[in-house]
Amino acid sequence: MITATAARIINFLPDKWVTSISKNIINNYLNKYANIHITGSENLKEIQTPTIFVCNHLSNSDGLVLDKALKAINPTFVAGEKLSKNAVTSIGVNIIKTTTIKPNTADKEGLQRIIKLVKQGESLLIFPEGTRSRASSLIEAKKGILLIARLTGAPIVPVGLYGTEKLLPIHQDGDMKAETFNKADVHIQIGQQFELLQRAKDQDKKEYEESTLTYVMKKIAELLPEGYRGVYK
Q1: How far is 79 from 83, CA to CA, in rounded Å?
Q2: What is the spatial distance between Cα 77 and Cα 123, in angstroms, rounded to a whole number?
Q3: Most C-beta atoms within 10 A of its C-beta, which of 130, 150, 199, 200?
Q4: What is the 3-state secondary structure (H, E, C) of 168-180?
Q5: What is the pLDDT of residues 41-66, one digit of tens each?
Q6: What residues contact 82, with CB distance under 8 A and at least 6 apart?
Q7: What is the model's pTM?
Q8: Are strands 52-55 and 76-80 parallel, antiparallel or unpaired?
Q9: Are the beta carbons of 220 and 232 closer than 8 angstroms?
């Protein structure tokens, strides 16, 4: 991966240069290391937009390959703010439409930005797990996706992704700038759009949220090999 020093130098350049250089760097890495296989692209042809794409999360390369696979819709990615603050990972953020949010907090400002984007017609891509899975399989999702879907009224498109955990593995010490690309087959499967289940009048709120979140995550799990389904088998 590009060194932290080089990344910092790039980020000091004028914005149009930063985007152009970052795009060339990322495209070179993906062309050299990633053999990307996409299935289900036909499901994008007649979907209602704006929509919310939901996908499992395995690697910091996930957004880079998904940006290519979903270019026809060109969604805005919801990312943790630390990615844009890290000189190396910001290279990827520079070439993808993103809006940041503070993970594991009541980030009202970040949520308001997200809602406004959808109201303006922008589709989103969200990783409901909220972090990369160190187990390389689905982990328990956060409830934020339910709030965003409810407040925007946008339908959901599930995406299953695997192979990126080999393309750009998570560093064992969590040092993102030390992560390196490796040759890997990457598989992306795009599912069919669906609407959130409606809460019954007599249904307990907690029960509804838990069952609906499981419903959403199992839509992703259905697009993955069994070994990647984790807690949503």
Answers
A1: 7
A2: 9
A3: 130
A4: CCCCCCCCHHHCC
A5: 999 998 999 999 999 999 999 999 99
A6: 89
A7: 0.90
A8: unpaired
A9: yes
Q: Which two tokens stand for residue 51?
A: 């929509």
The first and second tokens of residue 19, run together, are: 């985007």
User: Which residue is listed with tokens 């062309």?
Assistant: 31
Residues present in the chain in total: 233
**Per residue, what are the HEC states of the chain?**
CCCHHHHHHHHCCCHHHHHHHHHHHHHHHHHHHEEEEEECHHHHCCCCCCCEEEECCCCCCHHHHHHHHCCCCCCEEEEEHHHHHCCCCHHHHCCCCEEEECCCCCCHHHHHHHHHHHHCCCCEEECCCCCCCCCCCCCCCCCHHHHHHHHHCCCEEEEEEECHHHHCCCCCCCCHHHCCCCCEEEEEEECCCECCCCCCCCCCHHHHHHHHHHHHHHHHHCCCCHHHCHHHC
The token pair at 38 is: 């996409």
